[in-house]
Amino acid sequence: MPADQTAHSPVAGVTSRWISAVSDVPAIWKILSLAILFAAWEIGGRTNFNWAFPTFLETMAALWEMIADGSMGAAYLRTLEPLVIGLVISLVIGVSAGVAMGLRKDAEWLTLPIFITMQAAPMAALIPLITFVYGIGLTSKVLAVVMLSMPVIAINSYKAVRNVPQSLVHMCHSFMGSRRQQILTVILPAASPMMFAGIRLGIAEGFSGVVLAELLITPTGIGDLITFNRSIAKFPHMYAAIFSIVALAVITVSLLHRLEVTLFRPEKRGA
Amino acid sequence: MTMTHPIPDPEDAAPVASAIIEVEGIHKIYNGAVTALENIHLEFNRGELTSLLGPSGCGKTTLLKILAGLLKPTSGEVRVNGKPVTGPGPERAFVFQDFALMPWATVLRNASYGLELQGVGKREREDRARHYVAEVGLAGFEDKYPHELSGGMRQRVGLARALAVNADVLMMDEPFSAVDEQTRRKFQEDLIRLREIEQKTFILVTHSIEEAVYLSDRIVLLSPRPGRVSQIVTPNIDRHGDPEAIRRNPEYLDLIDDIWAGLRDYVE
Fold it and tell me: Which residues of A touch B88 (CB under 8 A)?
């Protein structure tokens, strides 16, 4: 019966699709698939096909070294600032705009074209433009995160609300539910799986946004760790920095999935 | 005895019960072009089970939704207990063809949802819902989710939800069309038994002649495009005793043939 999530697959950004896919697979398969990937990485590194490609174990050693000396922690403190601010803005505005567009025709006509354009435009190409207007500070980086994550969140929230089964809405109406009760007890819970799928994708996009900003605007935080280690040819450290941000994105997105099931969809618990 | 008479002839109608719902001159035109219902005059008597029967496209579900206040007629008026209908009301409850259960809510919460919307306290509404969940034969399933139930069981939850708000009229939109034949028969038998406990008015939309004859005190036959009342049939079948016996009753079988003979022209 709960086919609403699979029937209408959410709008995904290029970078976020696989992250979202990974977070839905059972744990054993995830571990197995990771083990195969890391083994292939280790073997690939040992064949020396590319002198700049470290083995998995070398990368993990470099990761540990950076965690131990505190440089990783310091980098994340810098990176998380624009990421968190950007994601909070995207969530609040994206979800509200999406829900409003789903509920009201006028909001749809006014706002949807903006998000569709933002969704379709190659945002990396616009980052230099942001720098041109807002300089190289925090504002530009927050904007980069927002521009990547908000359209996915807004469009999925909109589609989620639109795809709420009409018979549930009629049912609420027939039992004399007010518009407010209709939205709170039927529309939002029914929309939540797809809305959360969009939020997960949006957060994954936000990670891309912050890394892009740190690579393209000014090297700070994790972007700095990547560029700096590349420039001094410490490739295990460069790969370790990339590895850490990918891992963090996957973990965040998975945790969010858990939160969603706990909060909104008790029938999927343990399923 | 079975009486079959054409409409309109209000003098002939058996003066048994008072009308709880009066339908006067209902027209329904979709998009200014498609006439779904034309000049419907009907009365639904208190305590009776009336079926709206007809081939697809005859507007029977449209009529039911107008009675429920879920759709507005293009012209005409519906009165419930003498008051004109402007929307859904507490004296009417709806059972949906596709069950319309909330997949994230347990059987008990689904069954008590109508009361929840009315602002009844959690304890009271759950007690009342529990009673009706048991009455429709789902005791022990209170904490299950809809996806753990069969189609027939889901519709029982829909029925319990409609019963729990204690409305005078239960409106059922093809309630058995999405369940398999065996479940359907059992459900029909249970509905006859339920009517002995619950003194309510039932309005049932169906496209099954057998179902209409089996269950109804009165059958309103609708003709398609545009939907009009073509005939009103009053089966006089004794429904006490063995519910299986009804299906072998000669009056039941003859009436099915009669209605089919009348409807045959509209199909194709």
Answer: 173-176
